[in-house]
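Before the break, one more example. Copy the sequence into your notebook; we will annotate it together after we see the structure.
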Amino acid sequence: MVDAARHPKVDVRTYTEVERVEGFVGNFKVQLREKSRYVIADRCNGCGECAKVCPIEVPNYFDMNLAPRKAIDVPMSQSVPLVYSIDMDACIHCYKCVDACGKLEAIDFSMEDKLVWEDVGSIVVATGYSHFDPSVMPEYGYGRYPNVVTAIEMERLNNSAGPTAGNLIRPSDGANPKRLAIINCVGSRDKRFNPWCSNFCCMYAIKNAILLKQAYPDMDITVYYIDIRTPSKGYEEFYDRARKMDIHFTQGRPSLITEDPETRNLFVHSEDVALGRVTEREYDMVMLNQAAIPQPDADEMSSVLNISQSPGGWFMEYHPKLRPIDTPTDGIFLAGACQGIKDIPASVAQGSAAAARAGRVLHAKEWEIEPVVAVVWEDRCISAKGKKCGLCAKACPYGAIEYEVGKAAHVVTAKCHGCGGCVAECPHNAITQLHFTDAQILAQIHALLAERPEEKILAFRCNWCSYPGADLAGTSHFEYSANERGLRVMCAARMDADFIYEAFRLGAGAVLYSGCHPQDCHYITGQRVGARRAERLLKAFEKMGMTPGRFRVEWISAAEGDKYARVINEMQATLDSIPKEKLLEEIERLRPQMEKRARRMRETPQVEKALEYSRELETAMTGKEV
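Here is what the structure looks like once it is written out:
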């Protein structure tokens, strides 16, 4: 951190928050809130005289509230920059710090937060993780039993720069503990709280156990675990080293901790898998290895940066294997545990990778993007005529559409990622998507349903998940109905309701509406936009009296080729169960409604020309005039 602060091309802004982010890759504008320290940074030399005379003491959050700090203080002696700040929630305005500062005149109680804008080319998000609060687990007594501490509190107690100068003591009586229990997976791998494994906790527990055993050779240390996970280079050897040091490992998740009110000793009740029975053991202290969780402000930061999150709240990468550093928003990259729990070596590696990715943007004069962007036909946009709409802007997960009543909607090309959600949502067909225009897709639908459409299953697939899933089904030789006909679009959000209506108008036996799982969507909220539209279609077809199963919605990942094959075979079974006469009668009965609902699509530019070409193609294929 010192090297970074001294680097001529690195500007370290501590005590600063990101308020807003505007713009696009290579041209971001970031609004920063520089929070007031009430100490002028250029004048403060970090001498600490102000803290010595301050009469107010409050819990020190850096020491996990195990020791006090002054109302004017620095988090730690090695802070960068070494500039003091005043906690106004604790300050009593006695002004003794002002007198102690003397001629430096570094303290200014009139200071206020400053909002500044900075132009940046790329952004690296490295906000890290937070810790699970074990006080919500009453069975472990954290917060009630003073000798039950968290791993971070144990770190501070055993640290030479900590509140006890490295002398490990029990909070209840100040005695040195002789027996210590370490409990892993507190709040993780637990369906009540966090289902995920916290990745580094096994090694973290082993490290703390070894350090304590080295410092206190006579200490009896037991680690309670569900599974010991040591998959990386040298980790298993580290685990073996701990066992050779006579550190005990008991497989079993403790169910209860109780306390002796007189001695304040603790009793850990746990299953011992090796013994095949429940045990109760007495300890002087218990350390809880709590789960790693996303930062409390992760949702807010996700909104500010316009990046998506996984179901657990972690920031989501563009692709878990091919682009694990990138976010769905070009120019914004992820580093460290904000993207998912990882240990120090993995965080360092990802940080270096993120720096390299960001450097590519900074050194490029031009930046290439995918050509499948949206374009507005200004003469068709009702906003230009003074009418209120804005549906396209609401559907865009990237904020790429600028909307103002009285002006046609405008797509910022550099921000558009080509999901096509805005195109499908526009009720006036005023937007198109290059290479996936309505005309192109409708021509494909007509060609695919040119012959015996009542026998066909028309499958709409998203480019990133269900389309590769179908491809995997083929390369894996999973058998599925030969009556399936696939059609690719970039995202489920691009699957216009008009496409479905037109397919059924043409007599399709069944239609599959498929895309990514919600957590896998490459377009942040694209899947959700598509899912809402699919739900509306399901309800509409139910009211029309369509046979259940003829229209089906499924979310299929790129790895689920077996699921794709199964879904198609189930749809084929549904078609086979309907007598052909009944199916044809249903198609004819619903055709007028489908034609009525799909009529606006023919107003779209280029559609009629494409359909004319499609008719010529159908004639050539079937030998019949269409």
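The radius of gyration is 31 Å. The chain has a mean pLDDT of 93. Try to locate both features in your own notes.
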